[in-house]
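name: query_chain
kind: protein
chains: 1
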Amino acid sequence: MQNMKSKEQILKIRATVLYILNAFPLGIDYIKLFKILYYAQQQHLVCYGRTIISDTFQARQKGPVCGFVRKGLKLIENSRELEDDFQLFGENIQISWGKDCQIINSAEKSDLDELSTSEIKCLDTYIDKFRNMDSKAVSDYSHKDTAWKTAFNRAQTDPQLRVMTILEIAESGGANPNTLSYIKENLELDQALN
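structure:
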């Protein structure tokens, strides 16, 4: 079950997704979008000890996938009426069929006030890295990630265990012990406040 998101969290997720879509004027497929989100999030955790977006990553067949973003995009794709959290997220995002897969795009510009300089830097790193790779190569690249491998293997016995924890993601990206300790403290504080 997906936790309800605050308006601020949704606006941040939306701005991040639109930022990536703006970098691909002809559209982007699910695989590249999710991997850019995942690796930018991982790099931001490793370098700054904080996430970019408040979304849960899951280990799926073709690599890490963001739960909230995936659900919102699937609702748009299937022309379902968007309600609550997803109405705010999905406005002006379109999905159409490309040659072999769904293509996501939007003419709307990202609200850059939602993104920090460090977040943009991490997003740009993986936009540039994956821009000219085909989606299968991007998916194969993500299968080397130890957080994905661990969660994917766990999910073979129980699909509810496919969630990749923030600490697993940071550790897989090479976060040092001090950064991992900082992340853990912040996670415990967030839990205590909720």
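note: The first strand starts at residue 57 and ends at 60.
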